[in-house]
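Supplementary Methods. Inverse-folding protocol.

Structures were first reduced to a discrete structure-token string of length 652. This string, shown here, constituted the complete conditioning input.
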């Protein structure tokens, strides 16, 4: 049986096997976010672990690493053991085991033996019963029932409801993975069909019929087609499916060709209800092909979008009204929404949870301001639709407000001739292209004559300058390594975003090793301390609990970011608390151990977009929790927080 020394080795082995060609150490290092030296060490360890398979990872000079083997059977054996290892890893958490069990219930044609479940998952009957309670909570939302008889269990309900449950339970935690390819979990769920071939056929159809369709809608279409074909093969065929969606007659021939190609590819028959199901979900994800005679005028939609953005400005001070791209995109998006709004069902967004955790501020701004647009256009938008709109708002905020590093305008003053000046410019551009906008190279004489741009933030000079009206950083080419470090320290020390983040956290509002046991205790404790420090206004607590009641502030990674529904802070601070033991935060069962209570003054709100980016990045950084859990007091915790702020802002 395959045993690997640590998890990263599995990733390296998978990459090398799947690559089928040499892959360089630098590429591996980039993918795994480690050094090439670490990769070399990992390869040595990996070769030791797989030695029993009579194969070895070698490095072909100038090309990279590859798998050298003589016996094809041994390679097949390794792949089989690797899959087994992957399955074991995929069931190493309660959440993954529950998802596995739910999926088994969804795909099974008959009841499942409870004894088999206990054996497969290595769990006790008490643990199984706890899992069943959680699954019941999930399937109740889809009008599905669990029947437990004669030591066997069965999921009962109509096929369409099961499919909605199936789609919602897909694990799409990584936005990039979702839109760029298939996750390992998706491949497992659709292992009975040729997912890549189906994707190619569907994408060819999409390219033929639909222009400028967003990547997430394109992927949604592929997933729904795959689900239909997979369920047909499993014997779960829709016997009826009706929809009021009317498609343009011009696309019918291409739809027929798509169905014929899919039938030929998968060697199945796609009955009429399944064809209607596929058409329906393609139409939902691309309303361009949907007929609609009641579409409001474009000017009314655009006016409603502007009112929506104006309300965001009033509520949150972010002014997105000058973003023409956002207004145009939202106008077109709302047109598409109106086409499908009268249907019984709305579009599902498999990325709903991802968007909530990736763009928490943009989602909140959308949710709390959208009612004016809904009122104007007589719409009622679901959470899924709001998350689609959030992507547009979030992208606008990234364009207009989220400059982690605002490039500094600099001029180079050099007294050593043109060749030296150009060499220095090349070096600086290579090292600091993300930080500096070099406006030109000037001689010392030109500096003395003021023949350089006056709107520079500072000067980089090879000669001493003592009377400059802007800061000067002196750089000596013979000591470039040391001087470039000083230049970097100067740039980062003058970063507005960094200083804003540092100022939000204070020792008197940071708490570690707390033994509080529920959300209400945590929030009241943090509010008490914010009031004690005179950070918040009298109505802060009320507005915070009101906001908490709207939807969960858990963003993933064991992190929650509670905050008030309206501005209620005298000044901007974040109260932070680390719990000894995780607590249940919401009715979704999210477990939380790190709480950031945000108290932001209205005038400073546009400046703290970086804060949300910082908190979102912490979700996937286990090092932060490991470091903060070792702190004994608030001063130690502040040092950890500040170090992660610096790492976050410099990792660009």
């Amino acid at each position: 049986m395959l045993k690997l020394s640590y998890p990263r080795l599995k990733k390296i082995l998978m990459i090398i096997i799947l690559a089928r060609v040499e892959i360089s150490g630098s590429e591996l290092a980039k993918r795994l976010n480690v050094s090439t030296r670490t990769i070399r060490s990992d390869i040595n360890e990996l070769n030791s672990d797989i030695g029993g398979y009579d194969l070895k990872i070698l490095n072909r000079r100038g090309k990279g690493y590859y798998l050298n083997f003589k016996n094809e059977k041994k390679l097949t054996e390794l792949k089989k053991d690797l899959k087994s290892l992957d399955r074991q890893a995929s069931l190493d958490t309660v959440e993954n085991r529950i998802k596995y069990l739910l999926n088994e219930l969804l795909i099974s044609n008959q009841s499942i033996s409870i004894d088999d479940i206990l054996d497969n998952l290595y769990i006790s009957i008490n643990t199984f019963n706890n899992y069943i309670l959680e699954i019941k909570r999930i399937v109740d939302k889809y009008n599905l029932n669990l029947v437990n008889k004669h030591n066997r269990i069965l999921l009962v309900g109509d096929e369409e409801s099961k499919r909605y449950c199936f789609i919602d339970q897909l694990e799409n935690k990584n936005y990039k993975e979702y839109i760029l390819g298939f996750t390992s979990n998706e491949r497992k769920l659709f292992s009975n069909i040729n997912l890549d071939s189906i994707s190619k056929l569907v994408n060819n159809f999409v390219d033929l019929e639909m222009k400028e369709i967003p990547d997430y809608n394109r992927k949604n279409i592929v997933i729904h087609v795959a689900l239909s074909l997979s369920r047909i093969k499993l014997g779960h065929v829709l016997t009826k499916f009706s929809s009021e969606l009317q498609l343009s007659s011009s696309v019918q021939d291409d739809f027929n060709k798509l169905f014929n190609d899919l039938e030929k590819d998968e060697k199945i028959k796609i009955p009429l209800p399944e064809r209607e199901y596929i058409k329906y979900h393609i139409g939902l994800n691309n309303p361009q092909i949907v007929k609609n005679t009641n579409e409001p005028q474009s000017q009314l939609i655009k006016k409603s979008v502007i009112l929506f953005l104006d309300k965001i400005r009033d509520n949150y001070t972010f002014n997105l009204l000058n973003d023409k791209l956002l207004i145009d995109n939202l106008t077109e998006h709302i047109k598409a929404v109106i086409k499908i709004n009268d249907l019984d069902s709305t579009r599902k967004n498999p990325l709903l949870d991802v968007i909530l955790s990736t763009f928490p501020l943009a989602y909140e701004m959308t949710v709390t301001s959208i009612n004016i647009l809904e009122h104007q256009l007589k719409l009622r938008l679901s959470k899924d639709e709001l998350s689609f709109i959030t992507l547009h708002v979030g992208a606008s905020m990234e364009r207009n407000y989220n400059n982690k590093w605002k490039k500094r305008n600099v001029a180079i003053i050099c007294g050593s001739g043109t060749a030296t000046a150009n060499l220095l410019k090349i070096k600086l551009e290579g090292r600091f292209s993300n930080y500096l906008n070099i406006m030109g190279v000037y001689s010392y004489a030109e500096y003395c004559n003021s023949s350089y741009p006056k709107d520079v933030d500072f000067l980089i000079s090879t000669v001493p300058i003592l009377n400059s009206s802007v800061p000067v950083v002196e750089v000596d080419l013979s000591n470039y390594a040391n001087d470039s470090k000083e230049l970097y320290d100067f740039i980062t020390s003058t970063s507005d975003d960094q200083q804003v983040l540092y100022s939000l956290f204070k020792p008197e509002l940071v708490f570690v090793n707390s033994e509080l046991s529920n959300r209400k205790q945590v929030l009241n404790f943090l509010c008490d301390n914010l009031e004690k420090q005179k950070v918040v206004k009298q109505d802060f607590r009320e507005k915070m609990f009101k906001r908490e009641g709207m939807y969960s502030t858990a963003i993933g990674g064991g992190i929650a970011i509670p905050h008030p529904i309206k501005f209620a802070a005298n000044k901007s601070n974040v109260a932070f608390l680390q719990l000894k033991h995780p607590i249940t935060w919401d009715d979704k069962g999210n477990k939380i151990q790190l709480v950031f209570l945000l108290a932001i003054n209205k005038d400073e709100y546009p400046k703290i977009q970086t804060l949300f980016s910082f908190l979102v990045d912490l979700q996937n950084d286990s090092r932060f929790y490991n470091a903060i859990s070792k702190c004994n007091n608030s001063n130690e915790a502040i040092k950890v927080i500040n170090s992660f702020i610096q790492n976050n802002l410099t990792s660009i």
